[in-house]
C-alpha cells in the first residue's frame, strides 16, 4: 500500500457532520512477490590439509559465512533483481541528491548532508543510518557548520556512546563505514537509508552446510558446501510525492557524484 495520508486515494478520514452520511474509502493494494534466491559456496579441500590443519574446520565456516553475508548485504543495497534480490538503491524509489552548484570534485559539504536528510519521508529520520565509504572519513572529520564540527565519532556516553555505532553519529544518526558504499566523490559514497522500508525473506534454518567426499573422490578432496536462500525488495516501488512541495521523498537517499 503506497498511498499517503495526504493523497487522493486509499484509506483516509473525513470531517463528519452530525447525522450526515459517511464517506467510505478502501485500501489500494499492490502485489509484491518474493521468491527465494540461493547463495552457494563450494570449497574443495585436500584430505591432507584437513588432516594436518586442525583449525581448518573452524576457519572455513567463518570465511564462508563472511562471504555469504557480504553478498547478501550488497544485494540489499545494489541487487539487480536478475536472480538476486532487488536492491533498495537500484529501484525507482531511490532519491539521488545532486551536488551543489560549482562544488568541486573530491569534496563534501554540510549542505549535501542537510539536503539528504530533507528528502527522508516523515518518521524515517529516527530509523535512518548513514553508510559511507572509508575514503569519505577524512572529509567528514573536517566538516563544519560555521565554526562547529558536525561529525562526532565519539558520541555522548550518557546516550549510549560508541555502543550506538562504532563510528559515532552524523547529524544525529549513526554512521556505518562500509565497503558497500562507493568510493569518495562518486555516486553512492554517502548513503542515508531507512531499511524498515525494505523487506526480506529467508529460508528457515539459515545457512545450510553439507560435506561430501564423493564429489572429488578421485582427487582425494573433501567438498564443503554452504547454501543460503533469501530474497528482498523495497516495500515501495517509487519515491513518495509530498503533500506540499515538489521534491520527492524516499527512505533511500544517496549523494550524487561530485
Quaternary state reads single chain
> What does the average pLDDT come to?
91
What is the approximate shape? flat
Structural class: alpha+beta
From N to C, what is the helix and strand string? EHHEHEHEEEEEEEEEE
| Low-confidence runs of at least 5 consecutive residues | none
Write up what this structure looks like.
- There is one protein chain.
- With 258 residues, the chain is an alpha+beta fold.
- It has helices at residues 47-52, 56-78, 110-118, 137-141; strands at 37-46, 95-97, 129-132, 144-145, 148-149, 151-152, 169-170, 173-177, 190-193, 198-202, 208-212, 221-234, 252-255.
- Strands 2-13-9-3-8-7-6 form a 7-stranded mixed beta sheet. Strands 1, 10, 11 and 12 form a 4-stranded antiparallel beta sheet that branches.
- A hairpin with an 8-residue loop joins strand 11 and strand 12.
- The protein is flat, with a radius of gyration of 24 Å.
What attributes characterize this protein structure?
flat, seven-stranded mixed β-sheet, four-stranded antiparallel β-sheet, 258 residues, 4 helices, single chain, alpha+beta, 17% helix
Amino acid at each position: 500500500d503506497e498511498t499517503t495520508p495526504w493523497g487522493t486515494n486509499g484509506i483516509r478520514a473525513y470531517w463528519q457532520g452530525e447525522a450526515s452520511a459517511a464517506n467510505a474509502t478502501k485500501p489500494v493494494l499492490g502485489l509484491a512477490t518474493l521468491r527465494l534466491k540461493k547463495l552457494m559456496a563450494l570449497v574443495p579441500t585436500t584430505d591432507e590439509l584437513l588432516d594436518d590443519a586442525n583449525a581448518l574446520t573452524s576457519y572455513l565456516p567463518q570465511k564462508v559465512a563472511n562471504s555469504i553475508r557480504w553478498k547478501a548485504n550488497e544485494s540489499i543495497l545494489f541487487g539487480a533483481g536478475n536472480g538476486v534480490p532487488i536492491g533498495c538503491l537500484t529501484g525507482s524509489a531511490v532519491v539521488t541528491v545532486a551536488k551543489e552548484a560549482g562544488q568541486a570534485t573530491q569534496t563534501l559539504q554540510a549542505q549535501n548532508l542537510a539536503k539528504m536528510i530533507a528528502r527522508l519521508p516523515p518518521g524515517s529520520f529516527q530509523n535512518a543510518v548513514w553508510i559511507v565509504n572509508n575514503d569519505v572519513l577524512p572529509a567528514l572529520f573536517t566538516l563544519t557548520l560555521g565554526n562547529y564540527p558536525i561529525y562526532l565519532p565519539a558520541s555522548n556516553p550518557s546516550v549510549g556512546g560508541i555502543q550506538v555505532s562504532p563510528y559515532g553519529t552524523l547529524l544525529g544518526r549513526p554512521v556505518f563505514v562500509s565497503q558497500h558504499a562507493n568510493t569518495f566523490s562518486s555516486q553512492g559514497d554517502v548513503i542515508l537509508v531507512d531499511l524498515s522500508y525494505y523487506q526480506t525473506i529467508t529460508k528457515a534454518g539459515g545457512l545450510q552446510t553439507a560435506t561430501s567426499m564423493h564429489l572429488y573422490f578421485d582427487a582425494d578432496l573433501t567438498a564443503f558446501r554452504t547454501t543460503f536462500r533469501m530474497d528482498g525488495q523495497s516495500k515501495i516501488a517509487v519515491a513518495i510525492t509530498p503533500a506540499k512541495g515538489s521534491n520527492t521523498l524516499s527512505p533511500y537517499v544517496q549523494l550524487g557524484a561530485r
